[in-house]
């Protein structure tokens, strides 16, 4: 009997999405590869690397190098990558300074990856949100960096790519855990939810920013929950990373450590299903 095929969906969650790395390690440790991957926001960034042929270990080492500390990140960006810091910024009026999403994606993704999505080793779908049409867009062809730049465009922080004259924002706005896009032609659908929840107030009044971000997280959780009720994936993994904020990129080792139980859970479940399939 042939090995069951797997569709993998990597959700969005900013720094919490670093928990995807130990999840990807499960596939390498079991010696299996997803048949198709869909990624949203940081899930599109990490998913692009994996679909492009990087191992989970490669991704972890690159992420730890880039996010070792703020000084290390600057050395990587402006030394090894030779990036002008002003090239990353996009000024839209005096009160609107953003990071340029496409250039940020180009900075983070390895230059060894194929230029176009359709040339990746594993079929890959990038999930973004068409702001003007108010709908989800699934990008499966064309420049990889441009598509990922659209998917990671956090409203008010990262400026998204334009397609056909339309502006794009973070894929989480319409589909924070895009498992519905990896169902076709697979035996097992694995979804990884790293959205997180609003952090506890700990007796203090929340700032306006905390309320705004927390409100978005509530929205993302509700959207993902409704999609699960309609058609649940076979395996739903939710790492225990609620204690981290979306900006905790330099706590990468802590995020990965917190995701270890979720990694173990996924590995046990996949081993069980693979064993059943082989009998």
TrEMBL record:
Q: Does the keyword Lipid metabolism apply?
A: yes
Record-given protein name: Patatin-like phospholipase family protein
Motif annotated as GXSXG, chain positions: 39-43
Alphabetic keyword roster: Hydrolase, Lipid degradation, Lipid metabolism
Q: Which organism is it from?
A: Aestuariivirga litoralis
Determine if Lipid metabolism is one of this entry's keywords.
yes
Q: Which Gene3D superfamilies match?
A: Cytosolic phospholipase A2 catalytic domain
Q: Which residues form the PNPLA domain?
A: 8-183
Positions of the catalytic residues: 41, 170
Give the molecular function GO annotations: hydrolase activity
SUPFAM superfamilies xref list: FabD/lysophospholipase-like
Q: Which GO terms describe its biological process?
A: lipid catabolic process
